[in-house]
Design brief:
The protein is an alpha+beta fold. The protein has two domains: 2-150, no CATH class; 189-348, Histidine kinase-like ATPase, C-terminal domain (Heat Shock Protein 90, 2-Layer Sandwich). 65% of the residues lie in helices and 13% in strands. The chain has nine helices and seven strands, in the order ααααααβαββαββαββ. It has a five-stranded mixed beta sheet with strand order 2-4-5-7-6, covered by helices on one side. It has a two-stranded antiparallel ribbon with strand order 1-3. A hairpin with a 2-residue loop joins strand 4 (278-286) and strand 5 (289-297). Helix 1 crosses helix 2 (44-74), helix 5 runs antiparallel to helix 6 (191-207) and helix 8 packs antiparallel against helix 9 (313-325). The longest helix is centred in the middle third of the chain and has 67 residues, at 119-185. The protein starts with a helix and ends with a strand.
C-alpha cells in the first residue's frame, strides 16, 4: 500500500515538475495574448476575470478531450462516437459559461445584449479550440511514437551489434588457440611469440572493440598481429603479404570488420592447399574512403572434413554488420574463381 502511494506521489511529482509546468505556462501565455487584444472599457479587473472564465471553459473542454475522449474513443477507432461526444461536450459546457457570464454582466445590460446576439460565436470558438487540441494531440502522439520507435530501433541495433561482435571474438580466439595448441605439441620455439601476439590482440578486443568506432591505425595493427600469427603457423612455404597504401591519420572504423575475410582466406584457402599458397592483402586509404582487397589461393577441390562442423558465421556476420554500420555506404564484391578467391570491400567512413 505504501509502495503504491509512493508511486502515485512520484507520478504526480513528475507531472507537476515536467508536463504540469509546461501546461500552466501555455495557459498563462494564452491569457496574456487575450489581454493584449482587449479594449479596457470597464477596467483591467473586469476584463481579466472575463478572460479567466473563458480560459477555464477551454481548459475543461481541452483536457476532457485529450485525457478521456481521445484515448477511449478516437485511438480505438470509434470515430463517430468520439465526434458525437465531442460535439455534445461543447453543446453542454458552452451554455454553462454563457450563463455565468450573463449573470456576471448584470450591471452591464449592453454586454448582456451582446452575449444574447452573439452566443453562437462562443460555440464556434469553443469548437475551434477543442478541434485544435485534437490536432495537437494527434501530432504530439505521432512524434512521441516516432521517437520511441527510433529509440527502440537504436537499442535493438546496439544489442545486435554486441551479439555479432561476441560471435567474432570467440570465433577468432578458438582458431588461434587451436594453432597455439598445435605448436605446443610440437614444442615449437614459436609458441612464446604467439602468446605475446595473442595477448596484444586480446587487449585490443577487450578494451578497444567495445566502442562503436576505433582508430583505423589500431585496426591495422590488429591485422598485422593476426597475419604474423598465421605466418608463424603456416611456415615459410606460404606467402603472406599485407600492404597499406595512402595516409592513415585519424580515420575511425567499425572494429573487426576485416577479420572474417582474413579468417576465410586461411580456413578455406591455405589450410587446404597441397602445394605453396598465398594470401595478399592491400588496404587503400584515401581521406574517408577505404578499399580493402584480399585474395588467396585455393585448391582445385576442398576435401570434406572427417568431422564436419556447422560454420559460415563469419561472412554472414560481416554482411549484417556492414548493413548496420554502413548502410548505403559500402560495396562488397566477392569473386570465387577456380584457383583464386578475392574480396573487395569499399567503405565510406563517417
Amino acid at each position: 500500500m505504501n509502495l503504491a502511494r509512493r508511486e502515485q506521489r512520484k507520478q504526480l511529482y513528475n507531472f507537476l515538475s515536467q508536463k504540469g509546468i509546461g501546461h500552466v505556462f501555455f495557459w498563462i501565455m494564452v491569457l496574456v495574448v487575450l489581454l493584449l487584444f482587449e479594449q479596457y472599457n470597464y477596467g483591467f479587473a473586469f476584463h481579466l476575470t472575463n478572460n479567466l472564465l473563458r480560459i477555464v471553459i477551454w481548459i475543461l473542454l481541452v483536457y476532457y478531450n485529450q485525457l478521456y475522449l481521445i484515448p477511449n474513443y478516437l485511438t480505438k477507432e470509434k470515430v463517430l462516437t468520439y465526434f458525437g461526444l465531442l460535439i455534445l461536450s461543447v453543446l453542454i459546457i458552452t451554455p454553462i459559461g454563457n450563463i455565468i457570464e450573463f449573470f456576471k454582466y448584470s450591471n452591464y445590460p449592453e454586454y448582456q445584449n451582446f452575449l444574447k446576439q452573439n452566443h453562437h460565436s462562443y460555440f464556434l470558438v469553443n469548437f475551434f479550440v477543442v478541434g485544435a487540441s485534437t490536432i495537437v494531440k494527434i501530432i504530439s502522439d505521432w512524434v512521441k511514437h516516432q521517437r520511441e520507435r527510433t529509440e527502440l530501433q537504436t537499442q535493438t541495433m546496439q544489442s545486435e551489434l554486441r551479439f555479432l561482435k561476441s560471435q567474432i571474438n570467440p570465433h577468432f580466439l578458438f582458431n588461434t588457440l587451436n594453432n597455439l595448441y598445435a605448436l605446443t605439441l610440437k614444442k615449437s620455439d614459436k609458441a612464446p611469440e604467439i602468446v605475446v601476439k595473442l595477448s596484444e590482440m586480446m587487449r585490443y578486443m577487450l578494451y578497444e572493440c567495445n566502442e562503436k568506432r576505433v582508430l583505423l591505425e589500431k585496426e591495422i595493427n590488429y591485422i598485422k598481429n593476426y597475419l604474423d600469427l598465421e605466418a608463424l603457423r603456416q611456415g615459410k612455404e606460404v606467402e603472406i603479404r599485407f600492404e597499406v597504401q595512402g595516409e592513415v591519420t585519424n580515420q575511425q572504423i567499425a572494429p573487426l570488420m576485416f577479420i572474417p575475410f582474413l579468417e576465410n582466406s586461411f580456413k578455406h584457402g591455405l589450410n587446404h592447399a597441397i602445394s605453396e599458397g598465398f594470401v595478399h592483402t592491400v588496404l587503400f586509404v584515401e581521406d574517408n574512403d577505404i578499399i580493402f582487397h584480399i585474395e588467396n589461393s585455393k585448391p582445385d577441390s576442398i576435401p570434406m572434413p572427417e568431422h564436419p562442423r556447422s560454420g559460415g558465421i563469419g561472412l554472414v556476420n560481416v554482411r549484417r554488420r556492414l548493413n548496420i554500420h554502413y548502410p548505403d555506404h559500402h560495396t562488397l564484391t566477392i569473386e570465387d574463381q577456380p584457383n583464386i578467391y578475392s574480396v573487395d570491400l569499399k567503405l565510406e567512413l563517417d
